[in-house]
Amino acid sequence: MFRVLLVAWTILVSSTAVLAQGSVEHGRELAVKHCARCHDISPDGAFKTYPPSFASIAIFRARDQILTRIKLPALHSRMPQMDWILNLEDVDSLVAYIVSLEKPIE
């Protein structure tokens, strides 16, 4: 049953990600307020494993994967479920900021 709900949630989140874009600047402000304590949120953030920098997330995760991780963090993770703290527009803006950090790997 849990697996069915997880698949349905992922489909819903993925379809929402395509529709919404969010504000990069607002997402940066939210990252400073809610994420910087644990993540390196700078555009040139160091590539570390846990918790990953936003720059590395931008390179190695697709937009829908980022959105899903924010809304439904991995079990046994210390990351809070951000959609309890942020509304959908805020989550979209946070995703937009992370995605904006994507740079080609050199």
Structure notes:
There is one protein chain. The chain is mainly α. It has a single domain (2-100), classed as Immunoglobulin-like (Sandwich), CATH 2.60.40.420. It has 5 helices and no strands. It has helices at residues 2-19, 24-34, 54-60, 63-71, 88-100. Helix 2 packs across helix 5. The longest helix has 18 residues, at 2-19. The chain is globular. The N and C termini lie far apart (43 Å). Mean pLDDT is 82; it is low at 15-19.
Order of helices and strands: HHHHH
What's the name of the CATH homologous superfamily?
Cupredoxins -  blue copper proteins
User: Which outline best applies?
Assistant: globular
Mean pLDDT: 82
Overall domain count:
1
CATH top level label: Mainly Beta
> Helical residue percent?
40-55%
CATH arch. level architecture: Sandwich
CATH topology: Immunoglobulin-like
Report the total helices.
5
Radius of gyration: 13 Å
Distance between the termini: 43 Å
Q: What brief labels describe this structure?
A:
106 residues, Immunoglobulin-like, mainly alpha
Which helices and strands appear, and what pairs or packs with what?
Layout: H1 2-19, H2 24-34, H3 54-60, H4 63-71, H5 88-100
Helix pairs in contact: 1-4, 2-5, 4-5
Provide a short characterization of the protein structure.
With 106 residues, this protein is mostly helical. The protein is 55% helix and 0% strand. The chain has one domain: Immunoglobulin-like (Sandwich).
